Amino acid sequence: PGAALRDRATERVEKGVGGCETEGSARGGRGKNTVLSEGSSLHSGSGGGGHHHHYYYDTHTNTYYLRTFGHNTMDAVPRIDHYRHTAANLGEKLLRPSLAELHDELEKVRAPNDGFANGEEGTPTREAVVTYTAESKGVVKFGWIKGVLVRCMLNIWGVMLFIRLSWIVGQAGIGRYTFMLFYLAGNYLSTSTFPTNSLSVLVIAMATIVTTITGLSTSAIATNGFVRGVLCKCKLAFIHSNLIIFFSLSLSLGGAYYLISRSLGPEFGGAIGLIFAFANAVAVAMYVVGFAETVVELLKEHSILMVDEINDIRIIGAITVVLLLGISVAGMEWEAKAQIVLLVILLLAIIDFVIGTFIPLESKKPKGFFSYKSEIFTENFGPDFRDEETFFSVFAIFFPAATGILAGANISGDLADPQSAIPKGTLLAILITTLVYIGIAVSVGSCVVRDATGNINDTITMELTNCSSAACKLNFDFSSCETTDCNYGLMNNFQVMSMVSGFAPLISAGIFSATLSSALASLVSAPKIFQALCKDNIYPAFQMFAKGYGKNNEPLRGYILTFLIALGFILIAELNVIAPIISNFFLASYALINFSVFHASLAKSPGWRPAFKYYNMWISLIGAILCCIVMFVINWWAALLTYVIVLGLYIYVTYKKPDVNWGSSTQALTYLSALQHSIRLSGVEDHVKNFRPQCLVMTGSPNSRPALLHLVHAFTKNVGLMVCGHVHMGPRRQAMKEISIDQAKYQRWLIKNKMKAFYAPVHADDLRDGTQYLMQAAGLGRMKPNTLVLGFKKDWLQTDMRDVDTYINIFHDAFDIQYGVVVIRLKEGLDISHLQGQGSLNFFLTYSCFHPLEPKGPVAPLNVADQRLLEASTQFQKKQGKNTIDVWWLFDDGGLTLLIPYLLTTKKKWKDCKIRVFIGGKINRIDHDRRAMATLLSKFRIDFSDIMVLGDINTKPKKENITAFEEMIEPFRLHEDDKEQDIADKMKEDEPWRITDNELELYKTKTYRQIRLNELLKEHSSTANIIVMSLPVARKGGVSSALYMAWLEVLSRDLPPVLLVRGNHQSVLTFYS
What we know:
This protein is of the alpha/beta class. Among the domains are: 144-176 and 197-234 and 252-656, Amino acid/polyamine transporter I (Up-down Bundle); 864-1058, no CATH class. It is 47% helix and 8% strand. Helix 3 (144-156) packs across helix 18, helix 7 packs across helix 20 (575-603) and helix 9 runs antiparallel to helix 22. The longest helix has 36 residues, at 266-301.
């Protein structure tokens, strides 16, 4: 340790403290023949009573050695002082030696300038390649007018236009519509905050705000990249691709589902796809019920009823939906022609209504129609809610009339140029339909009173001066409607527009056109959305609905399913009941579309570049929030149910993890968040409380050493980084090809096997260089490995010793760059690559495919050794039971030897295991040392079942074990004393791994210690689940590779799984808060 420590030690010696007790030759201090004795043990003020650590000064190396277990060694035993803050005023701070002091060559060891030690101890990304099996010729394609504008207008001008808009005006009044925009901007959504004298065209304005913002968002998403709309059977193949791609390949069928899924990912897309498809199916029922209701009203006028009103609606609705199904199944070309005819009829009906408002026939006045009158406009300007209706209940009934804005996007695959057609057609449709809705609402509110008897005799012959109602001022007395039910007026007659029109049959035709066209559009949209969802295989149970038929790939099975859903809701036969059901579903879809644009903009993905520029991320966010608020205000429990359904589907898809990669903004934001946090983290200094084992695991191909992988994963999962290193050697060109293939292949293998790890292949001329590259370059910023994990080289006695030398030099390289080192040994071995049909593999260098592999030839039965190896390879995947994890914490490496076992016990498979701690000590201090270690562990808040102090570590091992060791190393000895000097030097130069006689004698004590430790391990830990033990450190340039490998061999032989651990001698544990 440092100069201050030497000064204190020398001062004590010069004062004559204690006697002298050393082994080997005495060494002097600072030029004086002084040695620290037993009595001069350097404890900290608060740590007295710990192990006696005896320092003496070596004049050759300027290094103090610490006497542990009665032998000269710098390695420090674990004690509390090493974990104190340097500034803690708790007496003299005792520092553990740095890793460099233990590991560097002797001539390189220098004392620090200050008084302290320098250190303290499957689904890879992919892109879908679409193979088109349908020929492009003969596929019907539409422009923006026929494909989007016409379709959206017809879908928006639905049932509400002719048979509910007049009722809405009667309930809410005219004025509410015009003021809604301003109240929404101020978030005044409670009806109590609206002016009591203004409530009407507001409903339309509110719906328009929602749909306009959604239309802008839809246009932004639809124009983000080239959009192909080819109807085809798609066969998906997957290749490695860039992370972030937005709609750069193809916009398939699916409308809102496709837009949301490709923006927010399959979790939200899958959830909203089912809901939106279901909402469109229910919308078919709503429009058909509206049609049937009109037909029944016409039949009532002629006193024709089949059963009663409700059942007649059911019968007519069922017949109608069957006919619509037939038109839809006939194909898109027939459906498009039908839409044009229906639009013409609908436009004529609107014109007919407008003309009729200027023709006040006397016969219509008793029914409440007086043409444009200021008195009526004034009276109808304010609200008059009846039958427990409120502003938002009325809005809930009206809102489905504005939900046709995605009709064009829903058939994006049928559009010739979706990127241009969707924005132009959708926004223009919103503008036109909104103006028509407002115009009709103002017109009908200015021409028709709320209540009328229909009785021509209810006229007033004399002029009254105290009239309060508009009807009275117009010489009609409808006051009887206050006490009895009337059949006419805005509040009572759903067929007001027919009554007002110049030619009533044309209005009926318009109603039929509006309802049937909207029903037809929804009937086409729902199956195509569902087909797109099923093609993505997000919900495997629905895969049968992905199949298409004919040249246009028509989803016939989807049509049948939609038909059945619609028929079920038609049987309800109540328009005002059906409408609020789908309002929440449509609002949820719109909320997610708006959120998609906000999310994509927030993610700042380079791939988010919409050609449509008239959008704003914050307006989209406001639109999303507005949709959510309106959902709750309309019906809080229905909104809550919708959210629960979306959340449930989201959780399901998240759990199932569908094998898709669409370059969603969720991925982009994940990347951005990771990047920002990594940069932020890079500016944060390391702190012992935040230490995490971040392991570079030299697995080769990850599936060839499953035991190594699973054991490291057990203590790094959700805690630290795990990188699977793979060194490819051999010709560079071939290796580069293999790396390119392996990168995607093995990362996918890790994901499929639920390994939270990264695969890092590298090419190098030899294993050592490749490992150095990985240790230097793996990771990012603070997210870099700090611990090297290797498997024990089981075959070292039979292999080329140059490979052994390379293996041991990797240890030295790791210590040089301040890595911790973990060596894992299973007596059966780790490498199972030869059992996968791959043949014999070199260390780390493996070429394999996914496990399990199909054998290339006949499979021979496994021999006993291979059977045991296969069983051992899976042992860490099983629950470990109530056994022990034995920690032999002999030398203080900063606490990594203790931290790893603790992390293991926090995992489910290891939680029942108890930690037993073994430490070295002296016979006469066993109780004292046990209490000291118990205190330290309690301060670290690490539970343990027992502490065993080994006082006989320094006992000489059994003779037969010494003999066995000598026989093992005999082939690797140099025997330089028996050779001429020149020959010995030449052999040492050519074979540096050989063991010299001088080296063997110099490290005799340490060799005996490894043999003795193995004896103790067999005595105390032979039944443990796993043994975690301090890894002995070999001085670089002092201990040959063969001798060090022999130490590791004899130390860990014939034992349960062993982890030999050596941290980088910087603290990884602390007892400070």
